[in-house]
Amino acid sequence: MNFIFFWRLAKEKGFDLLVRSLENIVHKTGELPGNFFLFGEGDLQGDLFWKFSGTPFFEDCSRLSGEEILEKMELLGISEEWEDFKIYFFGWQSLSTIRGVLEVSHFSLMPSRFLETFGLAALESLSEGVPVIGFQKGGLIPFIPKDLAVPFSSDDGENIEALSSKIVEVAEKYSSLPALLGEEGSDWDTLSHESRRIADSYTEGRWMRQVREMLPAGTGKILLVSDYTTLLGGIETHVQTIARTLRKHGYEVEIFGWDLPKGKWTRILRLMGLPYSLCNITSTFGIRKKIQPPNPPSQGGNTPDVIWLHSVSRFLGPLVVREVNKSGIFSMVTYHDLWLISPFPSKVESEGMIPKTPSLRSFLDVIYSKNPILYIATCCKYFQVSILRKSLQKIHIHIVPSQFLVPYIRDIGEIPEEKITVLEHFL
């Protein structure tokens, strides 16, 4: 039985819960119920090494190349090493390497602690016929079957116990020889076919048809607007994916945002960007040049036909959105995370934590630090979001990646439901 994890090694992704669950299983049984292939990088990598490095249950393979990793999978498949189950840590690897390991995996582990707005990694697993084990909430609801859902609690101890039990239960239930060999008709084969069926509906073609239905007739040029053009995380990566897809289908696409320097100062610059976003004059003048050139399109100008906003609350701010409204150009906005609701979307762990009317108090209550810079930045974020809500009401179409977000954008953002569209991601 092979399990795989390929997310950031971060608390919001539940990596600490996974590590402690594996420790719990070993403590209780003296062994692992299968092999665990762990991919990714992040702050919690040290926790994994601290708990398992030097034990017979762990092998650090992070220095292997993608080709060497796939060769190792082949060797493990025909050797007696499978009898000694281990945690194999591969670090950061390309998606092609991860897909190669997915081919020999039986279950994908996604114990995301925070409320995901979509489950792109889960969808990647399902497309390879690998069912997902995790907390069935938020954007992950469509991707985790009830039999593989882990009950979520606000208590970490309960989550660790629940995840441990589910891993052991699944290993015992599906580790028959026909299941491990992927024989047709086995219980695991049925789950695998259902996983592929779910993934098959999230296609680029379906996504593109929905986008075309939203765009005005004759659209040729689209300006994508996002806080950062640097690939810092899921939002930035997805914006780049959207740009490539639109270009492939004949649209002229440009991305507007800050090319944030990466390095030891990145976090500080992002925090400084929050207060600056309240009066971001440089970006305001920058986008004004993009959307209000001297000559209109009919005279050879280069004004975009559509402006598609993405993340605008971490740096660009209200003045940029106001310029978009003033331009009169058809506009859309995608809510990739819960920035409208919380200063730290990664700390929102359940829908019960979402306030009906976000207040300054609710924003400050999620700070568990004495750092005055965080308090200043959070206050700035609250006032910025309050202004943005009013500005965003003038945007023509509001896009959410999952159905569960609709009532929150409608009620908290005060957006008419007919202006809200569910546009799910694609592979």
Weakly predicted, low-confidence segments: none
**Mind telling me the CATH class of the largest domain?**
Alpha Beta
Write down the overall geometry. globular
* Domain count: 2
**CATH architecture label of the largest domain:** 3-Layer(aba) Sandwich
Helix content: 40-55%
- N- to C-terminal distance: 26 Å
* Main beta-sheet annotation: 6 strands, parallel
CATH topology of the largest domain: Rossmann fold
Please write the string of helix (H) and strand (E) elements: EHEHEHEHEHEHHHHEHEHHEHEHHEHE
Mean pLDDT: 91
Task: Explain the overall architecture.
With 427 residues, this protein is α/β, with parallel strands linked by helices. The protein has two domains: 2-199, Rossmann fold, CATH 3.40.50.2000; 204-422, Rossmann fold (3-Layer(aba) Sandwich). 42% of the residues lie in helices and 13% in strands. The protein is built from 16 helices and twelve strands. The protein has helices spanning 15-29, 45-52, 66-78, 95-102, 120-127, 156-174, 177-180, 187-199, 204-214, 234-248, 266-276, 281-291, 318-327, 360-364, 372-392, 406-412, and strands spanning 2-6, 35-39, 58-60, 87-91, 107-110, 132-134, 221-228, 252-258, 306-309, 330-334, 397-400, 420-422. The strands form two sheets. Strands 3-4-2-1-5-6 form a six-stranded parallel sheet, sandwiched between helices. A six-stranded parallel sheet has the order 8-7-9-10-11-12, sandwiched between helices. Helix 5 crosses helix 8 (187-199) and helix 13 packs parallel to helix 15 (372-392). It is globular and about 70 Å long. It starts with a strand and ends in a 5-residue tail after the last strand. The model has no long low-confidence stretch (mean pLDDT 91).
